[in-house]
Specification:
Structural class: alpha/beta
Number of helices: 15
Radius of gyration: 21 Å
Order of helices and strands: EEHEEHEHHEHHEHEHHEHHEHEHHH
CATH architecture of one domain: Alpha-Beta Barrel
Strand content: 5-15%
CATH topology of one domain: TIM Barrel
CATH superfamily of one domain: Phosphoenolpyruvate-binding domains
Shape: globular
């Protein structure tokens, strides 16, 4: 998201780095090379220069729409983690903010954020987007990360515990503070609110009831807000996919959160290096869940987008368009590259690629096909495998 290469779970060999060594961090392919030989170093330096030139060329696309060769326009919004990233969002020509993560408010500072601090953080981004949609996601952390909240028994599996919407519903004052600020900011532009990790209709209805209660309070206080504030949920657990037709009757939009959806669908802790190889966005089960979500959203006449690391990876762009997605939310720095691919392909071709992927049995086979199709569609695209010898 910051344009800085990073690799996690690199292993214990990093303890051998004492300082002064040459190290290559290849974020595209998830590898770290310690003390590379001259040939490897030269190859990477050449690739870096090629990418810089490509980035300069992509700047010319900033004000152009992400319209495919057969005339289908794709909305490319930005994922934001901090308010200061709004500058990069605007510079890259984002169509809006598809995911405004609000966790930083709870992680920075010695005290729990009050309503005014929430409001200022939201107002800054909404005003800067100048009428373009801004989707604000409510708190998406575990109880152990929030001061004054994680005083209960230790959770042996926090990813299946008290987190996200569950945590907000368990701590109503904390939730109401955030909802009040979001509603106040809704008068400044096209604001939408989104609840994370919703797995049951009961959770959604509780959240909407609290939102309605906060609206009543603001009415009594004479504080303005958008009475028609769009409400959506993150689709991150298989249970939500199964019940999506029911959810569609009660929300305005969905956003597929692939980071968690992959984790819960495949029962893989994405932070566990022992099973990290099983965590793969191209797994056939994940692709079918995405297809099911898009189809159910269309039947229910609800908007649907996709965020997460998958949306910002060029390898998956044609696949996602072929699965029916017309709204992607990606890291700001990924927007130009994804836009270029969208403008280079036809949706009809993407749909054929998606059908082929859905008929395959394994992630490795699917990814190989997708990389091959990317090379064909955009031969002068920086190849994400080009750094490998």
């Amino acid at each position: 998201a910051q344009g800085i290469a990073a690799v996690v779970g690199a292993g214990e060999f990093l303890q051998d780095v004492t300082g002064g060594e040459t190290v290559i961090v290849d974020g595209d392919n998830g590898c770290v090379i310690l003390q590379p030989d001259a040939e490897t170093l030269a190859r990477y330096q050449s690739a870096v220069e090629s990418r810089k030139m490509q980035t300069a060329r992509l700047e010319s696309l900033r004000d152009l729409p992400a319209t495919t060769v057969d005339g289908v326009t794709i909305r490319l919004s930005a994922n934001l983690e901090f308010p200061h990233e709004i500058d990069a969002c605007r510079q890259r020509g984002a169509d809006g903010v598809g995911l405004y993560r609000t966790e930083f408010l709870y992680l920075v500072g010695a005290e729990e954020p009050d309503e005014e601090r929430h409001y200022q953080a939201y107002a800054q981004v909404v005003a800067a987007m100048d009428g373009k949609p801004v989707t604000i996601r409510t708190l998406d952390l575990g109880a152990d990360k929030i001061r004054g909240v994680g005083a209960g028994p230790e959770e042996k599996n926090p990813f299946l515990g008290l987190r996200s919407i569950r945590l907000s519903l368990r701590n109503v004052p904390l939730f109401r503070t955030q909802l009040r600020a979001i509603l106040r900011a809704s008068t400044l532009g096209d604001v939408r609110v989104m609840f994370p990790l919703v797995s049951t209709l009961g959770e959604l209805r509780q959240a909407k009831m609290l939102l309605a209660d906060v609206m009543d309070d603001l009415d009594e206080e004479g504080i303005a807000y958008n009475r028609n504030l769009p409400v959506g949920i993150m689709v991150e657990v298989p249970a939500a996919v199964v019940l999506l037709d029911r959810f569609a009757a009660e929300v305005d939009f969905f956003s597929i959160g692939t980071n968690d959806l992959i984790q819960y669908a495949l029962a893989v802790d994405r932070s566990n290096t022992l099973v990290a190889s099983l965590y793969n966005a191209a797994d056939p089960a994940v692709l079918r869940l995405i297809e099911m979500t898009v189809s159910a959203a269309r039947r229910g006449q609800a908007d649907v987008s996709l965020c997460g690391q998958m949306s910002g990876n060029p390898v998956y762009t044609m696949l996602l368009l072929g699965l029916g997605l017309r709204d992607l939310s990606v890291p700001p720095n990924s927007i130009p590259e994804i836009k270029r691919i969208c403008r280079s392909v036809a949706v009809e071709r993407c749909e054929e690629i998606a059908r082929r992927a859905l008929a395959m049995d394994g992630a490795v086979q699917i990814e190989a096909m997708l990389r091959d199709e990317l090379r064909k569609a955009s031969p002068d695209q920086t190849d994400h495998e080009s750094f490998h010898s």
